[in-house]
């Protein structure tokens, strides 16, 4: 029986418990096995063919940069254009395949990934510095996206018009857009990369995928998995490189849509370029943009302070604050400010940094540029508030380690309170009262995630109505969105609010055709 025929209801992939000795052992074995494959050369994939280019670049382990993870063929603009041609050719057939065939590809890929769960965790650990739990969450989310979008595609295929007009047969068909560019960030290099790619593919589109140059190996390994699952030639084309290759895709008059997740700066550039309709381009380019955040947690006077401290620490320092959803502002009411910051200091100073392969709570920043940026914000913070803890570099194996850092008494308008740092730096802001706290939380150009800790039902209700973010969390941390339960996407300049992992996401990769037949 086909996998589609026996499809059970969607459930999230359970998290691995690494306190179970067998799981810890399996993770260590996977890291050792992956270490046996380091430094291997990878080629591009264009129209089903491996393509070597004249130029290569290496991806390295951010915890010990001397360790080369993979050597990748770097695409030129000409390679990007060849990949677009290949995707265009493949669309002529893939766009006409049955939804069952497309769904089957996702389900087979999911099964292979489940079998190699630990191996993919290990690649995430060595290439971007995720500790075991963070790596597991990324792999689990990827499996969830594959399973969830497979089921959503089947639902979409069964869509009908709300009304059957008398004397007619009315139909609504969600047809693919065409060929698209998928440009993911490095920080969820498996889940976000695969989620955007496979949402496009399951709805009948073809893709040119350009991963982040900080995480090319994970993408190359995923594309290999797709091939094992039966990926037809040209349906997903892989080109590696940086902004120049990404830009060639963005500016192409053949690219019908761009699914981008990354920084606000690059996202806004893409938005602007995509709005142009050069002569000969017969469509409005669609953009699906998920950008940065300046996410806050409001701690109300009547909150359980211990719970709030735990939630802020997990949200601010999980994966070193390198999440779009990370809490970078704790907005704390005056009457509990001292109690909160004292308890916060103890918890933050208990966090241990080190090699994520050894499963330390905190690992390195992704690269030298990120380390420099974070250190520069730490210097800015010293002028804008008081350093409560951290602030220093940790010297270890040449890795990009910076201590988890907290500044108190940061004014709501300071740079530390307004700009995305994307690192382990938390600003604690004093609020006069709940009203003030909510106003500070909303005073940002971003609007991605936010949380509030309070025991007041009335204040929770006000937050539901007035806290202006795409993903709001009540009495819990603001990171860790689960596919299906927390459709993900931000307001304001945090993006187009695409709600990945939600019931509306696949619509973004389709156009609806309304068909009326007279009976
Ligand atoms: P980035 O914007 O630097 O890069 C993202 C991707 O765009 C990479 O593949 C990069 O090579 C490519 N790129 C860079 N310049 C380009 C250009 N001019 N034209 C085309 N492509 C270009 O972001 P990053 O450092 O990889 O990721 C971190 C950022 O992503 C943070 O701002 C974070 O908040 C955001 N993010 C957002 C979400 C979300 O769902 N909203 C999720 C994860 C990360």
In short:
The protein is 38% helix and 20% strand.
Structure description:
The chain is an alpha/beta fold. It has two domains: 18-291 and 498-518, Aldehyde Dehydrogenase, Chain A, domain 1 (3-Layer(aba) Sandwich), CATH 3.40.605.10; 295-482, Aldehyde Dehydrogenase, Chain A, domain 2 (3-Layer(aba) Sandwich), CATH 3.40.309. The chain is 38% helix and 20% strand. It has 15 helices and 21 strands. The strands form six sheets. Strands 14-17-18-13-12-19-20 form a seven-stranded mixed β-sheet, sandwiched between helices. A five-stranded parallel β-sheet has the order 9-8-7-10-11, with helices on both faces. The chain has a three-stranded mixed β-sheet with strand order 1-5-4, with helices on one face. Strand 17 (405-408), helix 13 (415-418) and strand 18 (425-431) form a beta-alpha-beta unit. The longest helix is centred in the N-terminal third of the chain and has 26 residues, at 132-157. It is globular, with a radius of gyration of 23 Å. The mean pLDDT is 97. Bound molecules: nicotinamide-adenine-dinucleotide.
Number of helices: 15
Kindly provide the name of the CATH class of the largest domain: Alpha Beta
What are the distinct ligands in this entry? nicotinamide-adenine-dinucleotide
Shape: globular
Largest sheet: 7 strands, mixed
Mean pLDDT equals 97
Q: What strand line-up does the widest sheet have?
A: 14-17-18-13-12-19-20
Low-confidence stretches: none
Derived from helix and strand composition plus strand pairing, the structural class reads alpha/beta
Helix content: 25-40%
- Number of β-strand runs: 21
